[in-house]
Write a structure and sequence with these properties.
The complex is a heterodimer of chains A (434) and B (459). Chain A is mostly helical and 434 residues long. Chain A contains 16 helices and 2 strands. The N and C termini of chain A lie far apart (56 Å). Chain B is built from 18 helices and no strands. The chains are: A mainly alpha (434), B mainly alpha (459). Chains A and B meet through strand 1, helix 5 and helix 6 of A and helix 15, helix 16 and helix 18 of B.
Chain lengths: 434, 459
């Protein structure tokens, strides 16, 4: 299907064109850069909507929808060891791909004005496009080696964007801190993917619930868990997340609100779906999620700036996703991920202007910034509404997933109470600045 | 006419012209002559692939220490040509990047002789020929490094650097001579076992800087301010000794000789840990070179029959990326007069192309996807997982540490803003952009489409 290929190739061509612009010295021409990026993103968006529509139709009609191959190529073969670069859209990855493309479109539109006349305009859009390519590879990968490729690209673009404002030393130090956490967690994914390719040479995500060889039964999922903890800033790898908010607001939104923060959860989702993970490992996943959730919630209460508070709040929600994955509620985890990504992206995008609004205007809804944001985000009327929609959706999904049980009720209360804390905190801030 | 004679003619004439006209011409004529020489030799090697390999001789699979016997273990005919072509292109790049002034105190005629020696070593038929050329090249390098240190008035530091290099290289030559002596004169009267092979391995290990014989590497590869020839010749010579002497010999020892396994392993971890605390720009190529040469030594010992192909891939990655890093260092220090690297420097805003080149080269040497280094890393770890599981973890840890160290140095060198630095971007000369783009293109193209290179090496 041509649209499936366009989802990946449109941003890839955008990247190539931006590289050519960089080489030819047209980096200061914002109009050209904006045009190229917008065209690539719109093509990708239209393509993903077509593909999603096709999946939806298959689901409604009741046919078993097969996965769509976007790209399938053997990169090289060496002494029996080959790297098959295969990108596929299946019923899991389509959600994340849609999320990626939609959020990147939103952030792209936001950034065109946000970074207007900034000297790093070209650099920002180049890195965001490179990130989009990386995250699409990560979500569409058909095996863990290709997933690792996307994982690395996301990591380096994240570090380069955290250090976007290169003038300040703290920015650079925080970027190094984040890169260090990424690299340590990358060890897990690299080792696990290599060992897996040696033990199961032609393994791909087409095989589900594979039984791992006894020698690797425990440590491959544990290595994946290590990587997921690092990428999703779970305890004890959480210290980099608030520091990562040094970057531009739009990159913080898409990385640490929308996409990159959920990459760890996606990795765990794939691991638990693809393999029969031992119960001990599932328990560890749940334990990590629970500790991170409590840790993030408590710390978010004592932060002095809005972006750090949102960072810890994200951490907490991803911790809950870890718990959901460990309990086998994969669909719930996906819906949670989607809802959380939209909510957090919106909150982080808005965070740049929230204090300004509370100071300048009696009624924040009258502020120009608010009007601009609602004009291009027509679905997001207010934060309270978003929170209510999200909590309602979460509530319904939770009940649908497993029926009433004590654990379900506990998780529901935990999530709702965290949202209430956020709303209370924002109310306190607004009273303080008035 | 054999390829060797063609190369001797081309480089010999060029060296003679340079020697005779050293005092009258403008530098650009030196550069034009050098480019012509490089292109002629490039095409000569390229076209010789199509011809019969009669001048190279029969390919033997086993290494023999009879010094007149033809030997040709790792580098077969095709790979010799590839290696030779890459050596010529490296020389061409160095020539293009050299600053627009008389090539400071590294006599151009001597440079041609050294390059010729490297090319002939790559295509040597016999051990005797190879070792003789190695001795000549080593002596020329020692002399050049001393002369360079003197000319830049670095006084004690420069002299120390030259002293360290000289000591290690003379020890290697001495050990090689002992080996030859033993082989030629004593083998009939004594039962020596493998002592001569061990001595030759040891001297090769010193030449290419295997742990713990690496002390000369970091100061020597610290780029001289005006040219990248000397470090590149050191690297090329090291790689030749590795591929043509060490690699075939090391596997002739019994499998329980773990010293050849443990030393590179320690070397990898030692380099990764010490790189962690490094602050100097000029030391970066040295650390990454050490890491990779130890990885290559580990590959040939630990990965069975495919180890040599893995190390060849690693060697090519090392050469291209080292050329990029040395070019960056040479441009910053020689052309733009950057003296030290203490944050903030603000060089990124002035030299974005150089910053990108540096980042891509470092990422290639730490195995980042999309670069040739990722292919090498996948191949190395994939083979390692089949033979020695724990190798995967140790190498992954080393690559991780190197990746972090490289990125941290990138941030130190190119980020920030200095009160003395201008914010305006300084544009590079066309020839400099050409070299940088070529290096970037070769790294990324081989990373995105690696099957071409892998097929050439393995088939």
């Amino acid at each position: 299907m041509i649209f499936a290929k366009l989802i990946f190739f449109a941003p890839f061509c955008t990247l190539i064109l931006l590289s050519i612009i960089g080489l030819t010295g047209q980096r200061t021409n914002e109009k050209i850069i904006k045009t190229i990026v917008e065209i690539g993103q719109v093509i990708s968006l239209i393509s993903v909507l077509f593909v999603a529509g096709r999946f939806a139709i298959d689901y409604i009609v009741g046919t078993n929808f097969s996965s769509l191959v976007v790209l399938n190529k053997d990169l090289f073969t060496f002494a029996g060891h080959s790297l098959n670069f295969c990108l596929k859209l299946d019923e899991i990855s389509i959600w994340f791909v849609m999320l990626s493309v939609l959020l990147s479109n939103i952030v792209g539109v936001f950034s065109e004005n946000y970074l207007h006349r900034d000297s790093g305009f070209f650099r920002f859009f180049f890195l965001i496009t490179l990130f989009l390519n990386g995250i699409l590879i990560l979500f569409m990968a058909n095996n863990f080696q290709v997933l690792f490729i996307g994982w690395e690209v996301v990591g380096i673009t994240s570090a380069l964007l955290i250090s976007f404002f290169t003038i300040r030393r703290e920015t650079v130090d925080n970027a190094l801190h984040a890169f260090w956490a990424y690299r340590v967690s990358d060890i897990g994914l690299l080792c696990a993917s290599i060992i897996l390719s040696a033990l199961l040479p032609h393994y791909s995500f087409d095989n589900r619930y594979e039984i791992l060889p006894p020698v690797a039964e425990y440590y491959i999922p544990l290595l994946f868990l290590l990587s997921a903890m690092g990428k999703s800033a779970q305890f004890p790898f959480s210290s980099w997340l608030p520091r990562a908010m040094e970057g531009p607001t739009s990159s913080s939104a898409i990385f640490y609100g929308g996409l990159s923060i959920h990459a760890g959860a996606y990795l765990l989702l794939r691991t638990c779906i693809e393999f029969q993970v031992p119960i001990f490992v599932e328990f560890l996943i749940a334990l990590v999620g629970l500790i991170s959730c409590l840790y993030g919630t408590l710390l978010s209460q004592v932060q002095s700036d809005v972006k750090s508070a949102l960072a810890y709040a994200s951490l907490a929600q991803v911790g809950i996703m870890f718990i959901e994955i460990s309990l086998g509620w994969y669909n719930l985890a996906i819906y949670h991920c989607l809802g959380h990504a939209f909510l957090r992206t919106y909150q982080i995008l808005k965070s740049a202007s929230i204090i300004h609004e509370f100071i300048e205007y009696e009624d924040a809804h009258q502020s120009p910034a608010y009007k601009i944001q609602t004009s291009f985000l027509p679905l997001f009327v207010s934060q309270k509404t978003i929170s209510k929609i999200f909590s309602l959706a979460f509530d319904l999904a939770l009940r649908a997933a497993s029926g009433p049980s004590r654990l379900v009720i506990f998780l529901e209360h935990l999530s709702l109470s965290m949202q209430k804390y956020e709303e209370n905190w924002l109310n306190k801030v607004s009273k303080l600045v008035r | 006419m054999s390829l060797k004679l063609i190369l001797i003619s081309i480089f010999g004439v060029a060296a003679l012209l340079e020697y005779v006209n050293k005092y009258g011409r403008k530098y650009d004529i030196h550069r034009i002559l050098g480019i012509i020489v490089s292109l002629l030799s490039f095409f000569a090697i390229l076209f010789s692939i199509k011809f019969n390999s009669a001048e190279i001789g029969n390919i033997q699979n086993s290494f023999s220490l009879k010094f007149d016997t033809e030997f040709f273990n790792l580098l077969d005919l095709k790979n010799v040509k590839i290696f030779s072509i890459s050596l010529v292109l490296t020389f061409l790049a160095g020539l293009i990047l050299a600053p627009k002034m008389p090539l400071v105190k590294v006599d151009m005629s001597r440079v041609y002789v050294m390059q010729l020696a490297v090319l002939l070593m790559a295509q040597a038929n016999t051990v005797k020929e190879f070792l003789t050329l190695g001795v000549i090249l080593s002596l020329l390098l020692i002399y050049s490094i001393y002369q360079h240190a003197q000319s830049l008035s670095e006084d004690l530091r420069g002299k120390l650097r030259a002293d360290v290099f000289m000591i290690y290289r003379l020890i290697a030559i001495l050990i090689m001579l002992c080996c030859i002596f033993i082989r030629v004169f004593l083998s009939h009267s004594l039962t020596l076992g493998q002592i001569d092979i061990a001595l030759l391995c040891l001297s090769s290990a010193i030449v290419f800087g295997l742990f713990p014989f690496h002390a000369w590497v970091l100061p020597t590869l610290g780029t001289p301010r005006t040219t990248i020839f000397l470090p590149m010749f050191c690297i090329e010579m090291a790689l030749l000794y590795f591929f043509r002497i060490y690699s075939p010999l090391v596997n002739s020892f019994a499998n329980n000789s773990v010293i050849f396994f443990i030393l590179p392993l320690f070397g990898i971890l030692y380099t990764a840990i010490t790189f962690f605390s490094e602050r100097r720009l000029k030391r970066i190529p040295g650390y990454l070179y050490l890491n990779h040469i130890n990885l290559m030594a580990l590959s040939v010992r630990g990965l069975g029959e495919h180890g040599q192909n893995v190390s060849l891939l690693d060697g090519l990655n090392l050469m291209i990326a080292s050329l990029g890093l040395l070019s960056v260092c040479a441009l910053l220090t020689g052309r733009f007069g950057v003296k030290g690297v203490t944050f903030p420097t603000g060089l990124g805003s002035q030299f974005p192309a150089i910053a990108v080149c540096y980042l891509v080269c470092v990422l290639s040497l730490v195995g980042f996807p999309g670069t040739i280094g990722f292919v090498q890393e996948e191949v190395l770890l994939g083979q390692g997982a089949e033979h020695h599981f724990y190798l995967v973890f140790l190498v992954a840890i080393a690559l991780t540490l190197n990746g972090f160290s490289g990125f941290r140095l990138f941030a130190r060198i190119f980020y920030g803003t200095s009160s003395e630095a201008r914010d305006d971007e300084i544009s590079l000369l066309f020839r400099e952009k050409l070299v940088i783009c070529s290096i970037l293109f070769s790294i990324i193209a081989n990373g995105l489409f690696p099957s071409v290179l892998v097929d050439i090496i393995t088939k």
